[in-house]
Amino acid sequence: MTEKQQNILQAAGELFATEGYYATATSKVAKKAGVSEGLIFKHFGNKAGLLDAILQDGEKRIKLAYAFVIMQTDPKEVLRKTIELPFSISAEEYEFWKLQYKLKWELKEQPQDKMQPLYFSLEEAFSQLGYEDPATEADFLIQLIEGFGAALLKGQFADPDKIKALTLKKYGL
Amino acid sequence: MTEKQQNILQAAGELFATEGYYATATSKVAKKAGVSEGLIFKHFGNKAGLLDAILQDGEKRIKLAYAFVIMQTDPKEVLRKTIELPFSISAEEYEFWKLQYKLKWELKEQPQDKMQPLYFSLEEAFSQLGYEDPATEADFLIQLIEGFGAALLKGQFADPDKIKALTLKKYGL
DNA sequence: TCATAGTGAGTGATTACTCACTTTATAATC
DNA sequence: GATTATAAAGTGAGTAATCACTCACTATGA
Predict the structure, then answer these.
(1) Does position B25 have pLDDT exceeding 80, yes or no?
(2) pLDDT score, position A108
(3) Which of A93, A113, A122, B73 has the fewest CB atoms within 10 Å, i.e. is most exposed?
(4) Angle at CA of residue B164, ends B160 and B168, nearest 5°
């Protein structure tokens, strides 16, 4: 991976996240990355290939974020870390997650569900904690934190800390 | 409002909801609506004007949906109706809501927050029910049902009824 | 010396939008 | 009630700009 290749990935990631995939012209990606437009197609084949490369890179980062949750042994810690997940998005990860959320609505074929491993981990945790319906509880919590992630990225929360505290409290944490 | 004008609105709504706003060409809207492309610009000025018309129409429908919740006097009914909201989206409203959600991510300037009246209603309900922090509870629940709406529209729930039942149970309903 | 990295002008297709024009509906006048 | 006037509805070919993408070419490093 050359430096210019990384510049393209970086520029495309930012533009796709802010402007959207369809609304971003490859000419603008090239300009922002400081390369010729032709180079994009030499390296990534076409615009979709460029998106794929970004998505593949993203999948690694997402799996890493979830791995930290899944590796917890204490079921209560699994819940705690899951809930804390959307609230701990750092400034430099912000655009990356915005892109992930955005693409879920923009693309026709959904990039495969990266939540699957987390789901199993949560189901197990709820089961151990004696919840009545662990499967539905896992579904519920995943959707809750997905909603929180969306709200945070769109800046819809007046006070994120209060929401986080309330959520933890609701799960007795 | 002529028949052709309504056809344009209908066709654009469907295409924007499935393909996205930027990815939909006005020529395709015209073709689907069975009118000349020029007519779109005669009636709506430009593509953004067409979107505005759809959005304005949508705002009425959204306010109507919320009004039914807000008019409830019993605080428990306010919560129940709020929770039931995303699960009661009918087939013909499906595309409309999909468009609303999609545009939240696609557009730079957010169409004003239509949840505001619901927020006040929820805050009041939680207050009456003796919840400790009604404002945060309202924020929490709104984000929960927004997340549920998104999940339902993307078909991410294995069993929506179970999620609904669990949610109602969590609020003692 | 040879493969890979990188360029930039050029391609046809498609984009949002315009405009001179025709058709249709409404209503006023004879 | 037929005729006429007029505004609005509707058309479709045309436009400049932009789109994703190509290709003949040069630069560079092993």
Answers:
(1) yes
(2) 77
(3) B73
(4) 170
Q: Mark yes or no for CB contact B163/A140 under 8 Å.
A: yes
- From the CA of B1, how many Å to the nearest CA of chain A? 31
B20 with A104: Cβ contact below 8 A: no
Query: For residues A26 and A47, what is the distance between their CA atoms, to the nearest angstrom?
Result: 7
Average pLDDT over residues B15-38: 96
Spatial distance between the Cα atoms of A155 and A149, rounded to a whole number of angstroms: 10
Question: Any long-range contacts for A80-86 (C-beta under 8 Å, 24+ apart)?
Answer: A80/A168, A80/A173, A82/A118, A82/A122, A82/A141, A82/A145, A83/A141, A83/A145, A83/A164, A83/A167, A83/A168, A83/A171, A83/A173, A84/A164, A85/A145, A85/A149, A86/A145, A86/A148, A86/A149, A86/A152
Nearest residue to D14 via alpha carbon and C1': B38
As a whole-number percent, the residues of chain B with pLDDT over 70 amount to: 99
Q: Give pLDDT tens digits for B121-172.
A: 999 999 999 999 999 999 999 999 999 999 999 989 989 999 999 999 999 9
Cα dihedral A149, A75, A134, A111 sign: positive
Mutation for testing the B interface, residue in A100, A140, A162 having most B CBs under 10 Å: A140
CB atoms within 10 A of CB A62: 17
The structure tokens listed for B147 are: 């997340």
The distance of B87 to chain A (nearest Cα, Å) reads 14
Residue A68 to residues A56, A61, A118, Cα–Cα distance (Å):
19, 11, 10
Residue of B nearest to A112 (CA): B156
Size of interface A-B (CB pairs under 8 A): 90
